[in-house]
User: What shape does this take?
Amino acid sequence: MYLSTRACYREPAQIADGVFWVGANDCVKDLFESLWPIPYGVSYNAYVVVGSDGVAVIDGVDEHLTFEYLEKVREVVGDLDRVRYVVLNHLEPDHHASTPKLLNLARNAEVVLTPTAARLIGTLYRIPGGRLVEVRDGERLDLGGRRLRFIHTPWLHWPETMMTYLEELGILFSCDAFGSYGALTEGLFDDEVNLEFYLEEARRYFSNIVLKYSRNVLEALSKIERLGLRISVLAPSHGPIYRRYVDRILALYRDLSIPKRCVEVSVIYGSMYGRTENLVEQVARRFRERGVDVKVVDAARVHPSYTLSEVSNSGALLFIFPTYDASVFPPVKEVMNYLQVKQAGRGRIAAVVNTYSWGASAKEAVEILTKAGFQVVEPVIQLRPLPTEEDLRKLEELVDALAREVLKYEKCSE
Ligand code: FEO
Assistant: This one.
C-alpha cells in the first residue's frame, strides 16, 4: 500500500479533557532510523496538556514535519506564549528535531527533562541557555488542575529516557515504549484502528529497537506497578493511543521482554541456485516430523527487521548458506551481524551448515555467532553443492540433535 502524504495528514484532536494530540504522520520516509522498513509509515505522537495555570507540550516530531507540528500546537494553544513547558521524554531527533523551532516561537517555555538529558541535550540541539528545568524521578509539575509526574525510566532505549504521567486522568505518555510502526491513518485510538496490524508492528518495533533493553523494560513495568499508577490511557510516541486495550499492549511488552527459548527452530538460509533451498525444505520437514515448530527465513528476501522479530524466541537458529567470495553469503551474514547487535546474550544455540565449492566460510560464521552470544553446536557441517550420502546423513543427525535439545524448551504460544 502506498500512503500519499495527503492521506497521511491528520488534524490535531482532543484525546481527553484538556489533552490534545498534535503529532504527525510520516509517510515520506521508507526506513525508520534509516534501517527499518516502514511501508505503512510511522507516527510521531506529540501532545498538549492545558491546565488553568499553563500549557505543557509533551514531545515533538521529526525535522521535516516541524511546520505541520507547530501549526497544530498553535491551533490548540492559540498564543504560543501560553506554553510554559516543553517536556522532553527522550531526546532522539524523531521526537525533538522540532523543539528548537518551537522554543524560538514559544518564548516563555522552559524545557523539562531528566538530569541525564540535560547533560546530553547540548550535543543534539542548540537550546537557548537558562531554559532547562531538570526534574527528579517522581517530581511533579502543577499546570493548574493538571499535574504531571515524571517517572525516570532510563535506557528505553537511550540513557536519558523518562515517561510523563498525567495524574488526574491517568494518562501515561510513554514515548518510545509501547510504540509501533504504522502511520495513524484510520484513527488515533486502539479501538479505531486495525489493532492486530499495530500489535504486529509493535512486536517488530520492539525487536528492532527495544529488545536489547528488555531488562530495562521489565524494570519500568515493575516501577509502574510499584507506584500503583492507574493507566486509563497509554499514549506512546509512535502508533496508536491505547484506551480500550491498555492491558493488551502492557501484556505484549511484558511477554516480549522476558527472554524465551521456545520449542521452535528458525532456519535462516541463503540459496543462490536453489540447491540449498531444497536442503532447507528437507530440514524443515524433518524438524516438523519430530514435533518442532520451524520458521524458514530466506535471508536474501526478508529484511532483517522482520527476521529479528520472527526469530527472537526460537530456541535454536540453524544457518544454512553457501560461501560467497570466500565469505558467508552476504544476506545471511547481515542477519548474523544484526543478531550480534540486537539479540546478544539470550542463551540460545545455533548451528551452521555451509555449502562450499572453492572456498569455505563456516569458520567465519562460527566466529560471528559466538560473538553474538550463541552456543554453536557441533558438528559444524560443510557440504559440497552436490552433497554425498554421507553429507546428508550428517545433516540429518544434526537436525535430530537440535530437535532433541529444543524439545526440552518451553512450548510458547504466539
Ligand atoms: Fe522514537 Fe528513540 O526515538
Notes: The mean pLDDT is 96. The CA atoms of residues 114 and 134 lie 5 Å apart. Residues 90, 92, 94-95, 157, 176, 237-238 surround MU-OXO-diiron (CB under 6 Å). The chain has two domains: 5-257, 262-406.
